[in-house]
Amino acid sequence: MYLIHRYILFLRVNYGSVLINGNSLLRRVTAPNSRVAQLLAKHPTDDPLIEDLYLWSLCRRPTAKEIEVAKLHVQSYGTDRTSAIQDLMWAIFNSRDIVLVH
Questions:
Q1: How far apart are CA 20 and CA 81, in angstroms?
Q2: Considering the chain, what is the average pLDDT of its residues?
Q3: 10 Å Cβ neighbour count for 83?
């Protein structure tokens, strides 16, 4: 049993490292045909885009606070909406929700 717990801990630590430092994941977020790009093309306004981003990433709707923070984040980027949403996706992928669930 001890070995199983150590193995699970090893996987969680390595998974976190991949999320934080992973070039593969970065390419998937920034690629021209990425899910981020598809959602940006589909949603010209922020609310449905943020909701779809959460549904796709975490299989749940964002809380009111998450929507508020995400909208402030997107607004802080001015006209560079693509970078704002890519950064938001990266933050979601590195969130506690992903690390604990996946």
A1: 22
A2: 77
A3: 14
Q: Is the dihedral of CA 92, 93, 95, 99 positive or negative?
A: positive
What share of residues in the chain are helix, strand, coil (percent, to 5)? 80, 0, 20
- DSSP letter at 63 equals P
CA distance 7 to 96: 20
The CA-atom distances, in angstroms, between 41 and each of 16, 45, 81, 85 are 30, 10, 11, 12
- Indicate the domain borders of the chain: 2-101
Query: How far is it, in rounded angstroms, from Cα 91 to Cα 75?
Result: 16
For residue range 49-75, what is the model confidence (pLDDT) as tens digits? 999 999 988 889 999 999 999 999 999
Q: What percent of the chain has pLDDT over 70?
A: 68
- If you compute the radius of gyration of the chain from its CA atoms, what whole number of angstroms results? 15
Q: Is the CB of residue 67 less than 8 Å from the CB of residue 47?
A: yes
What's residue 48's pLDDT? 95
